[in-house]
Specification:
The complex is a heterodimer of chains A (322) and B (258). Chain A is α/β, with parallel strands linked by helices and 322 residues long. Helix content of chain A is 25%, strand content 25%. The longest helix of chain A is centred in the last third of the chain and has 16 residues. Chain B has a nine-stranded mixed sheet with strand order 9-8-7-10-6-1-4-5-11, with helices on both faces. In chain B, strands 2-3 form a two-stranded antiparallel ribbon. The chains are: A alpha/beta (322), B alpha/beta (258). Strand 7 of chain A pairs antiparallel with strand 12 of chain B.
């Protein structure tokens, strides 16, 4: 079958149940700014195909997955899709699974790879990936010397969304590469799904640090997050102390966030933490140490006892809602 | 058992990190450089196995400028038995593709049973080299492990994947990457630091490895622009005298954040 002009091959993240992950809209949205999105769904359910079309995929390629084999089945499917579609670029989530697949495809097909793009554009010479480096201190652009670039896209970084499309659906024939895969067991969700927004890509984030003092008192961060409709994060100190699981760690290691609002509660603001949040639009800091470095980058800082201030903020926010 | 551990020298995250405004490459003259903490943890995984299995050969492998010898020596002081340091002027600014090709060539020479890397470096944060090496070498890949058990014929562990955790098992030879959930490396004492000076440190060039950095040989990713963002300035700071919460909510309302 034929494919649209300037096809951009997008690898959709599929969750363990076979549905599309929340990254889909942004990936297809990014692709739509540089060409025609062609989605690849490996191991998805029927709803996944529809969801990709609603997100703007003009063509949806499907292939069966194998949840018990790590990375290789998706790589094989992506290689088959790449050869068939001959895209101008391949866009993949900058997730653990996404980076693995991107790296393997790049080696197999001898393609240039750009990692952790916060956006993509097209100029006369081709497709350019935009990056935010060293915790947002520097912006860089990268491009391949020639050939199709494989680009992993930072989750939550792209605001563009495509209009819903009526997608052509095609079942892909995937020749097995024969590469040996690690045997993978069932995925256990780290925590129960909550009604709170996901940290990656959240528009508001409330993070707590060592200043909370205990896991019990960390509840205060959750209450403030709920009052603001925000996702929850933590500094490495809070994670190391066991106040909050690692999946919520914001910083150099852990998750990088760029929300509209970032509230740092009891976080001193070590340079490693700032590297993961200093690109937030508005930063609020609450800390009893007036010399804490977090105040150097805060748009609104409160020097004071968080155990006194935070309940008052929650109260004021609740009062406003009524 | 022969284990290769990938070790990387990076700018210290405790200091200012800069990119050269002309080349877009890391400015190595700005701040201190250190052995990346995550690669020290990777080394610790290998050394723990070697503690229990004395016939284990742990080799530290680094591709870095000639100036990084001290960092490579640190890997020896922590406990690697020998080290391979790939140094070549043509590797300046190498992209992920050339880096993976070069490291794979060095690993092929040593034919290890297991390659251990950190999941993400603190500078480039690419997180892609382990999978690329597995593809180059035909090894089995198991990335992002937060717990690792090395056996005689296989490596098993807990993978901290995107949607949750899962148990994985890979027959050897394999490439694994580990997360910072694994323990910090042992500290090199004076005795080990002295002994490290006598341990073998092989320096290899691209010619030794038969790898070409010629841009025509394969597509490479290049930097086409670099700019520094102005640092954030501090805004309003108040001391709580009872009304701070009210003032903050007022500020959030004015900025349409609530």
């Amino acid at each position: 079958m034929g494919y649209p002009e300037n096809p951009i091959l997008v690898v959709i993240d599929v969750d363990p149940a076979g549905g599309v992950a929340s990254s889909t809209g942004a990936l297809i949205g990014a692709a739509s700014t540089i060409g025609a999105p062609v989605a690849l769904i490996v191991g998805g359910n029927l709803g996944a195909t529809d969801a990709a079309a609603i997100a703007g995929a003009q063509v949806v390629l499907t292939a069966p997955g194998d949840p018990a084999a790590l990375t290789v089945p998706i790589t094989d499917a992506l290689q088959a899709a790449y050869r068939q579609v001959k895209p101008d670029a391949v866009l993949i989530s900058n997730s653990i699974a996404g980076r693995d697949v991107a790296g393997r495809l790049a080696v197999r097909e001898k393609l240039a790879v750009s990692v952790d793009a916060i956006g993509v554009t097209r100029d006369q010479e081709g497709i350019v990936a935009h990056h935010s480096v060293y915790g947002g201190s520097f912006l860089t652009n990268s491009a391949p010397t020639h050939g199709t670039p494989v680009i992993t896209v930072r989750q939550g970084a792209v605001g563009a969304r495509a209009d819903a499309a009526t997608a052509t659906v095609e079942e892909l024939q995937v020749p097995a590469s024969g590469a040996v895969a690690a045997v993978a067991g069932e995925i256990t969700a780290v925590e129960q799904a909550s009604s709170r927004p996901e940290l990656r890509g959240a528009s508001k984030v409330v993070s707590g640090g060592r200043g909370l003092g205990s896991k019990e008192q960390f509840v205060l961060v959750e209450q403030l997050a709920d009052a603001l409709g925000a996702a929850i994060g933590g500094s490495r100190a809070a994670v190391d102390a066991g106040y909050i699981p690692y999946a919520h760690q914001v910083g150099q290691t852990g998750v990088s966030v760029s929300p509209q609002l970032y509230v740092a509660v009891g976080i001193s603001g070590a340079i490693q933490h700032r590297a993961g949040m200093q690109t937030a639009k508005t930063i609020v800091a609450i800390n009893k140490d007036g010399e804490a470095p977090i105040f150097d980058i805060a748009d609104f800082g409160i020097e004071g006892d968080l155990f006194a201030v935070v309940p008052q903020i929650i109260e004021a926010l609740e009062a406003r809602k009524k | 058992m022969k284990i290769y551990v990938l070790v990387k020298e990076v700018p210290d995250t405790y200091g200012d990190r800069k990119l050269d405004p002309e080349t877009g490459l890391t400015d190595r003259a700005t701040g201190d450089v250190v052995l990346d903490e995550i690669t020290e943890r990777a080394l610790e995984v290998a050394l723990c196995y070697a503690d229990e299995n004395p016939d284990t050969d742990v080799v530290a492998l680094s591709m870095s400028p000639g100036s990084a010898t001290a960092s490579v020596r640190r890997a020896l002081a922590i406990g690697a038995a020998s080290a391979v340091h790939i140094v070549d002027e043509d590797l300046r600014g190498a992209d992920l593709g050339l880096t993976a090709e070069t490291l794979a060539a060095a690993i092929r020479r040593g034919e290890p049973d297991l390659v251990i890397a950190g999941n993400l470096s603190t500078d480039g944060s690419g997180g892609m080299i382990p999978a690329m090496l597995a593809e180059h070498l035909g090894y089995v890949q198991a990335t992002a492990l937060s717990a690792v058990e090395i056996g005689a014929n296989s490596v098993t562990g807990t993978r901290s994947a995107d949607a949750g955790t899962q148990e994985v098992a890979a027959p050897l030879p394999a490439v694994i990457s580990i997360t910072e959930a694994l323990p910090d490396a042992r500290f090199p004492n004076l005795k080990n630091t002295m002994a490290a000076k006598k341990k073998p440190l092989e320096v290899l060039s691209l010619a030794d490895l038969g790898v070409s950095a010629d841009p025509a040989a394969a597509p490479r990713t290049i930097l086409t622009a670099v700019s520094e963002k102005p640092p954030r300035a501090a805004g309003i700071k108040i001391t709580n005298d009872g009304d701070a919460a009210g003032q903050l909510v007022e500020f959030l309302m004015q900025n349409k954040l609530v």
